[in-house]
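Archive entry: two folds, one per protein. Generate the first.
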Amino acid sequence: MTLLSTLRSHLDRFRRDEHGVVSIEFILVLPLMAVLLLGTWELNNALLTKRKSSHLASTIANLAAQDDNITASDWDTFGDIADRILFPYDGFTHRIGLIGVRIDGAGRVNLECSFGTAVIDPSSLPDGLKIANTFYVMTASEVDYEAFTKNSSLYGSSGGLMDMTFRDTAIFAPRNADAVSCR
């Protein structure tokens, strides 16, 4: 038997042998499955964070609308409430803001009080709510979402490809008084 025929017989036997095919298929499919799993995890976390941001804005507005006077101490309590609402995502940087606006007889929006670091534009009050001589509590929440995959690439920093800021606002009318005062 010549070297060429020996080599040919070994190659033919190797071609017919199916041992290890499943292992090769697994190795080829595993990275795709890992990416799908991590992507699903990331999407779920982002959606839950967005939902908690929305819940935070409406809860703070609801609590403020039930009071007739908001003090700096009350605002600190709202900060503690924000941490509890955002749990387990309370590690993300978040900001909340509250303003009290009064609509005068001419339909102009006037800022009466303000708390927090999330910026709220009083002119963003919808036209349908600009009813003369009414008062509204407007709140905003901002949550800076950071992907858990950030900076975890084998090839260096991923640059925070999935990082985003969720911003939600809520508008409530006072419940127990004509207006909410801020001190």
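Generate the second and append.
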Amino acid sequence: MKKWWISLSIVLLALIVINLKLGSSLKKKSCDLSHYQALYFKTYDSLKVLKDSIVRLQDSLNNLSGFSLSNNAEALDYLDEYYGENLHWNEQIRNKILETNNGQGDNTLIPFNGMYGPMKINSVKILNHKWLITDFTDGKVWGEMLVEYEPVKNHPDSIRFKTFKSVLYPFNP
């Protein structure tokens, strides 16, 4: 949240500097009040646009952080309670599923055979304490899948994965 205020402060500071430069040039030319009013309204309009942009960016950020293990205290508490405390659940789960890409050939979690190369997982979004979504490709054909995962009790480095649903997108050469 502080990053937004810092960015806004920098923009406001820049606008003040611009206003001071414009103001000093206006003083040299004339002290006509209409110049200052125009400058005020121009600055006001610029600030309004910037404020609206910040609100839209904040909304986008909030939407992107939804359905995320890292922002879900209940899911993290569940994992810690049933599988042992771990400060790095996201990293551990992501690394473990990407390890399934190791080796020759297709990733065994992906229920499709690669047509132009081996099918491999590209990216992972951990949704909660039970599910994650991935996308995969063979270099030309790609798809997505919903995967159920479960850490193995008393084995903190082991996680079981099971493909729940998947989709392969049509390839148009």
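Annotation attached to the second fold: The chain has a mean pLDDT of 82. Helices lie at 2-29, 33-65, 73-83, 89-99.
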